Amino acid sequence: MQIQTQHTLFVCTTCASVWKDGKRVGESGGEKLFQKLTQLHQDWQLHEEFSLQAVECMSACNRACVVSFAAGGKYTYLFGDLSPDSSGDKIATVLECATKYYNHPQGLLPWAERPEALKKGILARIPALAVPTTQANRPSVGVTV
């Protein structure tokens, strides 16, 4: 039996915030982007396999707005410079790229295959963590756990 890996699209909701006296004022650009992606996500063919999760600050403030694709055993990608005021078609390119990520076994997203907005906005490609295997599949190294 093969276990399906859960995929996640993280969206920074503090991106492009307006601050006054140390408090956020109004709706941030990240919140707007998250709302638009939430609407598109509902009708996306991978909505059950790819969760959408709001995140408070992804520490890429100078490249707002920011999203990330992550899944166990796959590369993690971080993209910035996404405009929350873009049309629905431009925002949909995030899900288009997420589909490519989902379909590749290691989550590789070659530059030439990414939508234009995500070619220019790449901030990081982080190597995959090893996916834990069951005890029966682990090689014996003389250590009892």
Automatic annotation (TrEMBL):
Domain of life of the organism encoding this protein: Bacteria
Question: Taxonomically, what lineage is the organism?
Answer: Bacteria, Bacillati, Cyanobacteriota, Cyanophyceae, Nostocales
Organism source for this protein?
Answer: Cyanomargarita calcarea GSE-NOS-MK-12-04C
Question: Pfam families this protein is in?
Answer: DUF1636
Name it: DUF1636 domain-containing protein
- Quote the Gene3D superfamilies the UniProt record gives: Glutaredoxin (3.40.30.10)
Q: Cross-referenced InterPro entries, in alphabetical order?
A: DUF1636, Thioredoxin-like_sf
